Inverse folding.
């Protein structure tokens, strides 16, 4: 009865279909954050972070053993790991080395890594005044603050920068690679021509193997192992690890007196007034390092010097800088570590290494099957927060270890270099062989070690060579795609490519022009002084 009555009721008019609401990005972002953090907060990943921290602190504490060398050596041992675990080891070594390298810079006036060059300006004078402990503590807090600011930069700007670069076509990608190469060459300590030669050498190595378009063999010399190209991990270990050890052997003087580290650490923790005094230089250093770190190839050594100069300009105690200024020390160390976040951002989001350590890291990631570039973070945004969490945990652990009275580090600084050379060479050979169990890789490493020794002795920087080897295939493929599709007009019709080319040209031309102007000004000054002497 009831069903029949329902059938006799008039049908209601069909409601118009509501438009589908767009999905809000907040749940996606929240999932990316939790997924990224959750991957790191597992016992095995935390264990690898702890291992990397110990290695990095030791690496930084030994003068001459750079973070680039340590990451290159560790790359051979991490390639069999899970990519996240491998990244945890390599990034933590990089972070911890930024803390450990301050120890020799302050105690024996020798930078543990290039990033701590500016630390020696005021760190060693403070140590000679009996304030070594205070200097090391202020350096540790400044380094940690700078690192945290860099992590914030990574978290905020990595995904938007990758989204912007995702719109790049072949012309823009080729211009971006040229930009990265020229920036590293432009900051090669004034050695523009030698930087260009080193970059060209890296690009030449990148042509060995199969053609990226046709698949034809090129410059393999009928060596089967070269069909896939020159293996870049052995090249990196040779240029940065073996070459540095060989250079130290060549330049070592048998009867040279080794500087004794200052063992009287004095006061360790700053008081409240001292902490208030450190706020301003830490802010200057963090701001400087954050901006400098976003520029490819400009590392912590340059950022530290710039921040030290800026802090001196705004300080009320300018006379103390260079003679034992706690403000100068803190600003330099804060700035040099703040560059790390920007360096990771440009490396991962653009595929252009921010410095030589990031160039080594790209090599390892490519073997893991991870291709840094615009598509990396847009396809997997959780990776941003994974990297940020790794860096944050490594920073906290390194800060905690740095605040321990490291009298044992003073003993380590007295270790003879000969023992250290043997250890490094053994690790170089074992790490290289373990990549693919290939003796050929070991030969490549040794050959590149000899070439790297030649480069060191004659002033050719290794960074552009490694960058050319890694970015060469990307540059070639995008150049040829542009020429096949649109010809040279493809570059002329792209505003982004033209801007990048203009900046690249400026990076190469401005340093020598500036040097010419300074020499001319000095010559005119000398001429005027000579005339003033002749004319009474």
């Amino acid at each position: 009865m009831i069903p029949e009555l329902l059938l006799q009721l008039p049908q209601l008019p069909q409601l118009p279909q509501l438009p589908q609401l767009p999905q809000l990005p907040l749940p996606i972002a929240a999932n990316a954050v939790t997924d990224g953090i959750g991957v790191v907060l597992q016992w095995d990943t935390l264990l690898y972070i702890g291992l990397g921290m110990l290695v990095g602190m030791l690496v930084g504490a030994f003068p001459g053993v750079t973070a680039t060398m340590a990451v290159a050596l560790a790359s051979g041992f991490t390639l069999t790991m899970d990519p996240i675990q491998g990244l945890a080891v390599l990034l933590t070594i990089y972070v911890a080395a930024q803390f450990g390298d301050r120890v020799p810079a302050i105690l024996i006036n020798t930078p543990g890594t290039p990033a701590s060059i500016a630390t020696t300006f005021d760190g060693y004078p403070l140590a000679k005044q009996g304030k070594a402990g205070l200097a090391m503590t202020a350096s540790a807090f400044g380094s940690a603050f700078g690192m945290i600011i860099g992590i914030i930069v990574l978290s905020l700007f990595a995904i938007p920068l990758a989204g912007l670069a995702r719109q790049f076509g072949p012309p823009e990608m080729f211009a971006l690679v040229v930009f990265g190469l020229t920036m590293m060459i432009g900051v090669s300590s004034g050695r523009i021509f030698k930087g260009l030669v080193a970059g060209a050498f890296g690009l030449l190595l990148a042509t060995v193997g199969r053609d990226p378009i046709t698949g034809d063999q090129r410059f393999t010399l009928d060596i089967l192992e070269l069909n896939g190209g020159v293996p870049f991990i052995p090249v990196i270990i040779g240029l940065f690890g073996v070459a540095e050890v060989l250079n130290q052997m060549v330049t070592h003087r048998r009867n040279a007196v080794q500087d004794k580290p200052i063992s009287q650490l004095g006061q360790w923790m700053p008081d409240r007034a001292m902490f208030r005094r450190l706020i301003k230089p830490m802010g200057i250093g963090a701001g400087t390092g954050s901006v400098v770190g976003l520029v490819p190839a400009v590392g912590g050594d340059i950022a530290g010097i710039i921040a030290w100069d800026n802090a001196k300009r705004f300080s009320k105690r300018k006379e103390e800088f260079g003679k034992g200024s706690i403000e100068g020390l803190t600003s330099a160390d804060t700035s040099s570590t703040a560059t790390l976040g920007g360096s990771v951002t440009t490396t991962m989001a653009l595929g252009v290494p921010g410095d030589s350590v990031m160039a080594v890291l790209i090599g390892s990631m490519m073997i893991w099957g991870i291709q840094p570039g615009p598509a990396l973070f847009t396809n997997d945004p959780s990776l941003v927060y994974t990297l940020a969490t790794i860096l944050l945990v490594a920073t906290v652990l390194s800060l905690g270890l740095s605040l321990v009275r490291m009298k044992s580090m003073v003993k380590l600084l007295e270790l003879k270099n000969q023992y250290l050379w043997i250890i490094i060479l053994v690790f170089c050979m074992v790490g290289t062989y373990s990549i693919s169990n290939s003796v050929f890789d070991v030969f490549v490493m040794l050959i590149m070690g000899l070439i790297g020794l030649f480069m060191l002795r004659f002033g050719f920087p290794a960074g552009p060579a490694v960058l050319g080897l890694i970015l060469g295939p990307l540059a070639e493929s995008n150049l040829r795609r542009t020429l096949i599709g649109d010809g040279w007009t493809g570059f002329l019709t792209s505003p982004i490519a033209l801007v990048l080319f203009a900046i690249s040209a400026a990076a190469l031309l401005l340093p020598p022009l500036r040097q010419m102007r300074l020499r001319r000004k000095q010559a005119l000054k000398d001429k005027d002084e000579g005339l003033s002497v002749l004319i009474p």
The beta strands are 209-210, 217-218. Confidence is low (pLDDT under 50) at residues 1-28.
